[in-house]
Write a structure and sequence with these properties.
- By secondary structure, this protein is an alpha/beta fold.
- It has one domain (55-118, 130-277): TIM Barrel, CATH 3.20.20.
- The chain is 40% helix and 14% strand.
- The protein has helices spanning 5-10, 18-24, 39-45, 80-92, 100-109, 127-140, 161-169, 191-208, 224-232, 260-277; strands at 56-58, 61-64, 66-67, 77-78, 96-97, 117-124, 145-148, 173-176, 214-216, 237-239, 246-248.
- The strands form 4 sheets. Strands 2, 5, 6, 7 and 8 form a 5-stranded parallel β-sheet that branches. The protein has a two-stranded antiparallel sheet with strand order 1-11.
- Helix 7 links the parallel strand 7 (145-148) and strand 8 (173-176).
- The longest helix is centred in the last third of the chain and has 18 residues, at 191-208.
Length: 279
C-alpha cells in the first residue's frame, strides 16, 4: 500500500519504512458481509425445533415453457393473461412458492415447508419467460426456477446472461437443462453425456457465481444411467415431466411436474385436503 502524501507530511524527520507504515495505518477495509447459510442452518440459528423428516411431501411442481400473447397455441404455451390468472388462483388459495432446495431440506432434515407449497419451473430459457413471466411472478410475490440450455443463451429468442443475473437478484433460481437440449438416453454413457450434464453445471456456476443444484431432463427423457450421471454430477435435485405430486428421497432425482391444468383438474383436491389435514 502506498504511503499517502498526508502520511508523509505527518511523519517525523526520519524515513518511515513501508512495512511500519502499513502496520500503523488503520484498517479501512469494510467488514465482511454475513456468510450465506442454508435453510437448515437458518433454522438452527433461530432455535427452531428440528422435526423428523417426512417420508413424502405432496406439492405441485408446475411446468412452463412459453408465456406469450394469444396468437401462439398448444399445451406448451400460456398467455400472460392466462398465467396471471393461474398466479391469482395460487395466491387466493394460500399457496407459497418454494425452491427445490427447500423440498430437499424438508425431506432430508425436517425443515418445514409452508402449508401449501408450490414450485413454478420454466424450461429452456426462452426470452418470453423473462419478458412476461418474471414481472408477474414479482407482482404476485412468487419465485420461479428457470432451467436454461447454456448454448441457447445470448441467442435470438433466448435469455441473456444479464437477464439471468437480474432474475437471480430478484430471488429467482437458475437450474441446468443441459448444454444443447439432446435426448440424453441417445448419448450413451460416455463423454457426450458428461459434457451435457456436468459441463452445463460448471459453465453456469462460473458465469453466475452460485451453485447450480437442480437439473431438468430435456423432453423428460431419462434412463437409469442418465439419472446416475445427474446424481454423480453433484445435483441435489432433478425434475422430470412424470405426472404426480409426490416428492420423496427415493425420487429426488426424478421429481414429477405438471401443467397447471393437469394439477387443477386431477390433483388439486387431494393435495389441498392433505395440507388442510396437517393444520
Amino acid at each position: 500500500m502506498l504511503i499517502t502524501r498526508r502520511g508523509a507530511l505527518a511523519a517525523p524527520l526520519f524515513l518511515v519504512s513501508p512495512l511500519r507504515a502499513l502496520a500503523e495505518e488503520p484498517d479501512r477495509r469494510p467488514p465482511p458481509g454475513p456468510p450465506e447459510i442454508s435453510a437448515l442452518q437458518a433454522a438452527e440459528a433461530e432455535g427452531r425445533p428440528q422435526l423428523p423428516p417426512p417420508a413424502t411431501v405432496e406439492l405441485p411442481i408446475l411446468l412452463y415453457h412459453h408465456v406469450v400473447p394469444a396468437h401462439a397455441q398448444g399445451p406448451l404455451f400460456v398467455t400472460p393473461e392466462g398465467f396471471e390468472k393461474q398466479l391469482q388462483y395460487l395466491q387466493d388459495n394460500g399457496y407459497q412458492s418454494v425452491s427445490f432446495d427447500d423440498v430437499a431440506d424438508c425431506l432430508e432434515f425436517g425443515v418445514p415447508l409452508p402449508e401449501r407449497p408450490v414450485i413454478l419451473s420454466f424450461d429452456d430459457g426462452w426470452e418470453n419467460q423473462f419478458q412476461y413471466a418474471f414481472p408477474l411472478l414479482q407482482k404476485y410475490g412468487f419465485t420461479g426456477t428457470f432451467y436454461v440450455v447454456t448454448n441457447y443463451l445470448d441467442h435470438q429468442n433466448f435469455m441473456t446472461l444479464d437477464q439471468l443475473k437480474e432474475m437471480m437478484a430478484a430471488g429467482m433460481i437458475i437450474g441446468s437443462h443441459t448444454r444443447n437440449h439432446p435426448a440424453l438416453p441417445s448419448l450413451g454413457t460416455g463423454q457426450r453425456l458428461k459434457d451435457e450434464v456436468v459441463n452445463s453445471k460448471i459453465w453456469l456456476e462460473e458465469q453466475l457465481g452460485v451453485p447450480i443444484d437442480t437439473f431438468a431432463y430435456p423432453y423428460g427423457s431419462y434412463t437409469a444411467a442418465v439419472v446416475a450421471a445427474v446424481k454423480a454430477a453433484g445435483y441435489r435435485t432433478a425434475r422430470s415431466v412424470d405426472g404426480g405430486t409426490r416428492a420423496a428421497l427415493d425420487n429426488i432425482e426424478l421429481l414429477p411436474a405438471l401443467l397447471f391444468s393437469q394439477y387443477v383438474n386431477h390433483y388439486r383436491a387431494s393435495v389441498e385436503q392433505t395440507a388442510d389435514a396437517r393444520r
